Amino acid sequence: MEGLRKLEKVCQILEQNNRNPGRLITILQAVQEEYRYLPEEILAFVATSLNLTPARVYGVATFYSHFTLKPKGKYIIRVCDGTACHVKRSTVLLDALGLRLGLKGSATTTPDMLFTLETVSCLGACGLAPVIVVNDEVYGQMTPEKAVEVIDEIMKKEELINGKKVIKF
Ligand code: FES
Q1: Does 148 score more than 70 pLDDT?
Q2: Model pTM?
């Protein structure tokens, strides 16, 4: 049912852009906002709808780093690893967050699809180093403790929304 609702949304996005192949990037951006990533079958659907080859659509989706073909969590935590943040020990933040989220090995997304943890290069807020961004919210002068608190707050909020138990690791 959810899948069907989202597919309707993709059709709306295509209509809003007049099924114009020249608006492919705008269309993919809107689709990614809906799914939080670009599912392969939706890329194929977009290609057919725009009369483009799947290879062309796939090529655009993989060319821009802004697009992702892998599912991501509801909350995307980006730890800045630019020079200013790196010298202020951003890797310690990354380790603390990974531990709190229970991420193992090369996993970057929690199994419940709530969080994705990534690194980014300079976020342009070096004066606040070290910096993390959760979705669009910027947190400066982070310590491992403060970063974990940010996550715990979100977990509490989600518990209230979903009636889920907060998972302790
Ligand atoms: S290096 Fe992190 S904000 Fe610039």
Answers
A1: yes
A2: 0.77
Token pair 């990533």 in the structure block, residue: 37
Residue 79: CB within 6 Å of ligand 1? no
For residue 103, give both structure tokens. Answer: 């991420």
| Sheet (strand 137-139) strand order | 115-120, 75-80, 132-134, 137-139
Q: What tokens were used for 46?
A: 């977009």
Distance CA 143, CA 96 (A): 9
Closest atom of ligand 1 relative to the 80 alpha carbon: 2
Helix orientation angle between 54-63 and 40-50, rounded to the nearest 10 degrees: 120
Beta-strand (E) ranges in the chain? 75-80, 115-120, 132-134, 137-139
DSSP of 30-48: HHHHHHSS--HHHHHHHHH
